[in-house]
């Protein structure tokens, strides 16, 4: 066999421990990804319910009526879609991908890992823009929007860790 043979490669960082049991770190990261994404999904649904008039008022800790001003402002819609709808869809995708990875090593599901990383990156970028728009364009702060931005900021490094592990595993197997 050649030096490039996978049998001569060191095991990737996300390889299962003996007995096929997934490493606790990978499992904890994916549980955290799913839990944070579910929290974001619920947050987005709450904002969407307000935007669509299904509920009359938002509970807005710290910012008075700021949540309501932001939630129904013209800046709550981009490209004809409510931001909360796009957020709910993004969080649903991230939840689904985190759960679909299961306990398998990232290298066995590279497209799911890449989709998770791309979705998390897009969500974090969108949150940065929307956070800027609150004081600059709407003149108010929204607790629920800031919570969503914080959730995206927490999700992004977890998703990128999955991408790094998939990439390092691929390079370990095929240098």
Write up this protein.
This protein has 175 residues and is an all-alpha fold. The protein is built from five helices and two strands, in the order ααββααα. The chain has helices at 24-51, 66-71, 83-101, 110-138, 143-173; strands spanning 77-78, 81-82. Strands 1-2 form a two-stranded antiparallel sheet. Strand 1 (77-78) and strand 2 form a beta hairpin. Helix 1 (24-51) packs antiparallel against helix 3 (83-101). The longest helix is centred in the C-terminal third of the chain and has 31 residues, at 143-173.
What labels would you give this structure?
175 residues; mainly alpha; two-stranded antiparallel sheet; 65% helix; disordered C terminus
């Amino acid at each position: 066999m050649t030096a490039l043979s996978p049998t001569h490669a060191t095991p990737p960082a996300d390889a299962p421990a003996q007995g096929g049991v997934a490493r606790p770190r990978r499992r904890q990261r994916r549980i955290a990804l799913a839990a944070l994404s579910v929290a974001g999904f619920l947050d987005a649904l709450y904002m969407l319910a307000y935007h669509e008039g299904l509920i009359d008022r938002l509970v807005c800790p710290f910012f008075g009526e700021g949540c309501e001003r932001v939630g129904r402002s013209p800046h709550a819609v981009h490209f004809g879609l409510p931001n909360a709808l796009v957020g709910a869809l993004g969080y649903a995708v991230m939840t689904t991908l985190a759960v679909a990875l299961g306990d398998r090593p990232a290298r066995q599901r590279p497209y799911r890992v890449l989709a998770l990383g791309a979705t998390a990156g897009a969500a974090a970028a969108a949150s940065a823009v929307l956070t800027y728009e609150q004081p600059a364009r709407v003149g108010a702060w929204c607790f629920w929007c800031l919570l969503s931005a914080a959730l995206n900021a927490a999700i992004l490094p977890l998703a990128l860790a999955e991408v790094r592990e998939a990439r390092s595993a691929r390079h370990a197997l095929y240098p």
